[in-house]
Amino acid sequence: xxxxxxxxxxxxxxxxxxxxxxxxxxxxxxxxxxxxxxxxxxxxxxxxxxxxxxxxxxxxxxxxxxxxxxxxxxxxxxxxxxxxxxxxxxxxxxxxxxxxxxxxxxxxxxxxxxxxxxxxxxxxxxxxxxxxxxxxxxxxxxxxxxxxxxxxxxxxxxxxxxxxxxxxxxxxxxxxxxxxxxxxxxxxxxxxxxxxxxxxxxxxxxxxxxxxxxxxxxxxxxxxxxxxxxxxxxxxxxxxxxxxxxxxxxxxxxxxxxxxxxxxxxxxxxxxxxxxxxxxxxxxxxxxxxxxxxxxxxxxxxxxxxxxxxxxx
Length: 313
Known about the structure:
The protein is of the alpha+beta class. The chain has a domain at about 40-160. It has eight helices and 13 strands. The chain has helices at about 5-35, 35-40, 50-60, 125-140, 145-150, 165-195, 210-225, 295-305, and strands spanning about 45, 65-85, 85-95, 100-105, 115-125, 155-160, 225-230, 230-235, 240, 245-250, 255-265, 275-280, 285-290. It has a five-stranded mixed beta barrel. The radius of gyration is 35 Å and the shape is rod-shaped.
């Protein structure tokens, strides 16, 4: 790795690109570990649960209200669920031992009886609806209201309230950064093994076959480095400028014109900064600018570049 200096610069750029994804992932891990987000969106299978009303109350108290349940012998209560004046669901009940369990089922055409149905629903505490339904059922059957109310806990399992969108969003926000981090990590490994896969290798095609140029840069940065300061590397044939997320390569014998100017550089709405701008150009082949905060540094770079061949100012 010590002999592959240019590849190391490209690798550092690639690693820098991964940092935002890793930071986001770590923040999400912290949020999900500190707050019970995943448990709240988890779907609990209650098919083999006894005392269903007690279990519903327990889950609702723990704020884990998404369940999957296979209900059998559901009876239509005669009450419907409306959205904008249209039937979007119907209320049903089921007897489970001595418990009466209420369900709000998605349907536009309520059936009087449902033999069996597997639903994903949200536990909802709705005493208003359940008590109203119980009162009507007691009235229709001529039974005592108190007897009916003993059967129900006031909970219902609502299919329309199941938060598909929220669950999808939580899992996307949780797993997407994981997938991105894995892909970027794999890409980083591949870039190290095969630097030609790095998108920055395309810029080297202007100087020849990219693979050969990478090997030449590795060699020159190792054995023919004539100047190095901060992020600037100058070899016998190349100038390499290494930034956080990219590395630029300029072939020195391509430079025909060289100029230094004092300019004001604005930083995303912040106060303007005065910098020294070095412009290197060749009307037929290239145009490149690099900014310096030190006049001594830019003068040193200009001196080394001018030493390669005769360059006009």
